[in-house]
Each structure stands twice: as C-alpha cells, then as structure tokens.
Write a structure and sequence with these properties.
Helix content: 25-40%
Number of helices: 11
Number of strands: 13
Bound molecules: acetyl coenzyme *A
Number of domains: 2
Structural class: alpha/beta
Strand content: 15-25%
CATH topology of the largest domain: Peroxisomal Thiolase, Chain A, domain 1
CATH superfamily of the largest domain: Thiolase/Chalcone synthase
Order of helices and strands: EEHHEHEHEHEHEEEHEHEHHHEE
Radius of gyration: 19 Å
Length: 328
C-alpha cells in the first residue's frame, strides 16, 4: 500500500497595522481603566487599521510574505482559503479579491468559522494535499474587526484588534508537518457571540443601524466558560489523534482572547503556562488572524524550532473549535 502524502507548512507570513490603540487611549473613549483591562483580559494594546483599509489589504501583505518564505510565486498556488468574519463585502469573497491583488489565478473561497477559521482552513488544506487534489494551498486568517465594534461599548471594545496571518501548505517529508486535525461546532450556542444584522436574517436598514445590530455582541461570561471547556477538550482530542502526550507538547499556540482563559486551559490540561505562547497583550483578539499570527511570532522568536511538537487550538463564534498538531 502506498503511504499517504504528509502535508505541512512551507512558509508563514503576518501583517499588523501600524496604528497602536493602548488601554490609556481607551480610557479616554469609554469608562474603563488600564488596570481593569489588564487584570481581566491581559491585553495592553491592540492594532487598528486605518479607515478605508479592507481585510484583503492586510491579507495581501501577510500572503505575499508567506508565499515568498515558501520559495513559491503566487502563480504556483492551486487554492486560496481565506478565513474571516469581517469580509471586504458580502460578496464576492475576500479570497477572490485577494487572489486578484496578489496575481494568483487559482480557485479561492472564504471560510466562516470565526476565531477557529484559520485552524479549520489548515484541516481542510491538509486533506486536500494528502488526497493529492492540490499541491500548494494558501490559508489566510485576516480581520478588520475594528469596523464592527461599538466603540462606546466598554464590554467589547477593549477586547479586539486587527491583523492578518497566512501560511502556504504543501507536501512535507521525514515526519515534519501536520500530524492530526480536529474540528467541532455547536450551533445551539450561536447567540453567545454574534453580529446579528447585515445578513439575510436582518438585512441592513435604518432601524438595524440605529439599534446597533451591526456590532459585535457577546455574552462574555458564557463565552469564557465555553472557551475553557472546548479548548481543553480539543487539546485532549488532538493529543489522542496525533498519538502524543500532554508532556510531549513543546509549544501550545492558542486562540488569543483572554489571558485568564489561557491560565484556566493550562490548569485544566496541565500544560505549563510557560509552554503556552501569548501575544494577546500586544494585539488583543484578532479572531481568525489570532492563531496564525501567534504561530508566526513563536517561530520568529525561536520558541518553535525544527522538530518541536506544536499544538494549535482555537474557539470562536458558532460556537466553533478546532485543533491541529504539527511536528515542526
Ligand atoms: N472596563 C471596566 N469595567 C468593565 C469593562 C471595562 N472595559 N467591561 C465590563 N466592565 C464591568 C461590567 O460592567 C461589570 O460591572 P458590574 O459588576 O457593575 O455590572 C464588571 O465589569 C464585571 O463584568 P463581567 O462581564 O462579569 O467581567 P468579566 O470578569 O467576566 O470579564 C470579559 C469580561 C473580559 C469580557 C470576559 O468575560 C471574557 O474574556 N470573556 C470571553 C470573551 C472572549 O473570549 N471572546 C472571544 C471570542 S471572539 C470570537 O470568537 C470572534
């Protein structure tokens, strides 16, 4: 029997907008304090895209870096999967807009799984490489979520930031690459975290705008509990699927929503907090861009080296959750 191909990451890229919004800046905008934000979330600052910047603009910069780092050209891509909850527009897909902007010619589509979107995209790309359907797949997580935040609502506006990350997935060898993937969803919890209007259920109207239905709405306490449970369970499941032990994980790359969530995940899974990569203090929650930007930085900072065992884990609106184990 022929061995199935192994898929893995050939190149990484990331882009963060230059403008920094600090907790001190937020103190001037809503009734909050640096102390409250730091102790409740761990966030110190976040990046905010300039007005007029679209999600595809951030995605272009991250994607071109990932393609260059993989030693390929845009014309070598066979597929683009772009994960976002803040697309440039309802249609066409942001992936198609990205395809044109980077000069690729392959099929392209968006994937909607909120903060789990990039990890969902990895799982999909892995299957398509292993089945030999495609050779080189660009997976992108990109968000300009600042345009969907009510900057007068202190319970949500302190949490989020803009950014993009990208990875080129292709065939890898000698046991390096993706070891296992896992995805989950629970639509019964959809209302915990949503932007209710702008789609077919509540099309844009003067009333939908006046009642703030185009902004992120969240039941923070319930999302917090679900995040700890689903990420903890996803780590157990991916460890089993990849035949790893918890002790064998060198670096955990989690979705970056809240430092208290990561401490609780560490307690629940017994993964020491020192092995959990954290950059939410600098970027806040970048939804689909969060895990891929964290992976990019962990590699850059030398926290992930050749041979490291890495687990990526995410949760988000849907609810959705996902995990991916990799040997670097
Ligand atoms: N500054 C000051 N006070 C605040 C702020 C703020 N920015 N926000 C809320 N408060 C107040 C509340 O009004 C409340 O006051 P009250 O007691 O007088 O009513 C008090 O602080 C406590 O509020 P809680 O909501 O109970 O605070 P909590 O400790 O639960 O922290 C938080 C809130 C940070 C949102 C937390 O619940 C959380 O992190 N939840 C998870 C959110 C998350 O991870 N979302 C990611 C998913 S994103 C995606 O998938 C797209």
């Amino acid at each position: 029997m022929t061995q199935k191909k192994q898929a893995g990451i050939l190149g990484l890229g990331a882009y963060l907008p230059e403008r920094i919004l600090t907790n001190a800046d937020l103190e001037k905008m809503v009734d909050t304090s640096d102390e409250w934000i730091r102790t409740r979330t761990g966030i110190r600052e976040r990046r905010i895209a300039e007005k007029g910047t679209a999600t595809s603009d951030l995605a272009v910069k991250a994607s071109l870096e990932a393609i260059q780092n993989s030693g390929l050209k845009p014309s070598d891509l066979d597929l683009i999967i772009l994960a976002t909850v803040t697309p440039d527009m309802i249609f066409p897909s942001t992936a198609c807009i990205l395809q044109n902007k980077i000069g690729a010619t392959c099929p392209a589509f968006d994937l909607s799984a909120a903060c789990s979107g990039f990890t969902y995209g990895l799982a999909l790309a892995e299957g398509l490489i292993r089945s030999e359907t495609y050779k080189h797949i660009l997976v992108v997580g990109a968000e300009v979520i600042s345009g969907f935040i009510n900057w007068k609502d202190r319970s949500t506006c302190v949490l989020f930031g803009d950014g993009a990350g990208a990875a080129v997935i292709g065939e890898t060898h000698d046991g390096h690459g993706i070891l296992a993937t896992y995805m989950g969803s629970d639509g019964s919890q959809a209302r915990l975290l949503q932007i209710p209007a702008g789609g077919s259920a509540i099309p844009p109207s003067i009333s939908s705008i006046e009642t703030g239905l185009h902004y992120v709405q969240m039941d923070g306490a319930e999302v917090f509990k679900s995040a700890v449970r689903t990420m903890g369970d996803a780590i157990q499941e991916i460890t089993k699927r990849a035949h790893l032990t918890i002790q064998g994980i060198d670096c955990l790359i989690p979705h970056q929503a809240n430092l208290r969530i990561l401490n609780a995940v560490s307690d629940r899974t017994k993964i020491p907090i020192e092995k959990i990569f954290v950059n939410l203090d600098r970027y806040g929650n970048m939804s689909a861009a969060s895990t891929i930007v964290a992976l990019y930085e962990a590699v850059k900072e030398g926290k992930i080296k050749k041979g490291s065992t890495v687990v990526m884990v995410a949760f988000g609106s849907g609810l959705t959750w996902a995990a991916c184990a990799l040997r670097w």
